[in-house]
Amino acid sequence: MSFMEEMTKTERVMAAVNGGEVDRIPVCFWHHFRPEGSGRRLAEATYDFFEATFDLDILKIMPDIPYPLPRRSITKPEDWLLVEPINAERSRFFTQRATAIRALRDAVGYDTPVIMTVFSPLAEAMYAAASRELFLEHLREHPVLIHQALATFAENLRAHIQGCIDAGADGVFFALQGCTATIMSRELYHEFGRPYDLLALQGAIDGWLNVLHIHGERDLHFADVLDYPVQVLSWSDRLAGPSLREARTMTSKCLMGGWHEFGALATGPVEKIREEAEDAIRQTGGRKFILANGCSVPDDTDEQWLRAAREIVNELVLP
Predict the structure, then answer these.
(1) In this structure, what CATH number is given to the domain that contains residue 110?
(2) Based on the number of CB atoms within 10 Å of its own CB, is 90 exposed (0-12), middle (13-18) or buried (19 or more)?
(3) Number of domains into which the chain is organized
(4) Is 1 a domain residue?
(5) Model's pTM, two decimal places?
(6) Is residue 202 part of a domain?
(7) Is-cis flag, bond preceding 229, omega within 30?
(8) 74-111: per-residue pLDDT in tens?
(9) Is the dihedral of CA 236, 205, 117, 105 positive or negative?
(10) What SS3 class is residue 291?
């Protein structure tokens, strides 16, 4: 590849998304932080990890300010009627997440992409239920109530996503739960997942860096979400599949992955971290590709492996 001047992070990621030439492979990795309690503290934790410590190409705000419905609180079918529209001006979910985005924009300007992690309507519904099994029981026995709740979740999340982009985010990291045969069939996902995903994602229409994360460790309904209105696809390519090479034959979207989140990136050795990164570039040709973990690395990951991974990126040779 010919010599290129160093790009800003936004230029680098935007080039990868659009299939252009990059000065080096864009990189991002993450784990879950402890709840920080306020938008400003969330911004500080995000800046410290993604920018100050590891100099990553994307600032991915983690969902430490949860959806305003207590986790595991729904036990009876009629409890789904408690899922109500959110007042955007009064909800900390809206206001504090927007505060985090604006604080990060103030800190890094527009030379670094900022995205907000948002769980899908189905994911939020499963988190709200006392258990996943109970949710699936209600889904089978009281589908009208579940559809009503999912529609409300979706509309609230649509407004939230729009608010994030209005506050300065470049897009969202939209995390699907349930899009795997280990939780529900393709038919059920098409009924209870897809319509509400698409409704929520209407809020992301003005974003240029919307990442669809298809969560699961096996049997993903991968092909069923390739037409979602996003620019980037993220999944555990080394754990769940398909491989990056297989996915490249299925879609022209930018792919995000390459490192096994429970593998060398979390436990070493350095040689294996490098090997996975080089293999990912071979699989993708280094175009329309962001090097990342398939999903969150364990929270107790020794930072020496993350530092090594970041250093390796500077040494990778593009085709």
Answers:
(1) 3.20.20.210
(2) exposed
(3) 1
(4) no
(5) 0.97
(6) yes
(7) no
(8) 999 999 999 999 999 999 999 999 999 999 999 999 99
(9) positive
(10) strand
